[in-house]
């Protein structure tokens, strides 16, 4: 779960960074405008700044991605819990006596399920 969170947190950080002409990362909110972050018009060679709506759109996309990540983390937690419950169910319903490791796992899962 921690690895999943770290990987997706890293991905979100990469989404919020952009690449300038030299290949170096820079944060989108540092106020700097590289040539690659400026739109050009057909009126001449001078680049023009992007409209504020482009920044708003990017921030909206980041917000949507963060919400999506939160939903996926919750889904993963639910799937993990269902998997553990299924395993516990199979250990409880086992007709034969349990091995020592199975009994220990059963007790651990019972304790975990009851504490949540």
Description of the structure:
With 116 residues, the chain is mostly helical. Helices cover 61% and strands 9% of the residues. A two-stranded antiparallel sheet has the order 1-2. The radius of gyration is 25 Å and the shape is rod-shaped.
Describe the SSE topology.
Elements: H1 2-15, E1 17-19, E2 25-27, E3 39-40, E4 47-48, H2 52-92, H3 100-115
Antiparallel strand pairs: 1-2, 3-4
Q: Distance N terminus to C terminus?
A: 17 Å
**Mean pLDDT across all residues, rounded?**
76
| CA radius of gyration | 25 Å
**Lateral strand order in the biggest sheet:** 1-2
List the main descriptive attributes of the protein structure presented here:
116 residues; mainly alpha; two-stranded antiparallel sheet; two-stranded antiparallel ribbon; 3 helices; rod-shaped; No apical meristem-associated C-terminal domain-containing protein
Brief synopsis:
The chain is mainly alpha-helical and 116 residues long.
């Amino acid at each position: 779960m921690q690895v999943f969170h770290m990987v997706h947190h890293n991905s979100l950080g990469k989404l919020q960074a952009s690449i300038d002409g030299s290949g170096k990362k820079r944060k989108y909110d540092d106020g700097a405008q590289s040539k690659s972050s400026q739109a050009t018009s057909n009126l001449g060679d001078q680049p023009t700044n992007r409209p504020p709506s482009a920044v708003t759109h990017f921030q909206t996309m980041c917000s949507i991605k963060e919400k999506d990540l939160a939903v996926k983390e919750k889904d993963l937690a639910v799937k993990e819990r269902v998997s553990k419950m299924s395993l516990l169910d199979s250990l409880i319903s086992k007709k034969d006596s349990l091995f020592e490791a199975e009994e220990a796992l059963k007790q651990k899962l019972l304790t975990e399920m009851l504490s949540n």
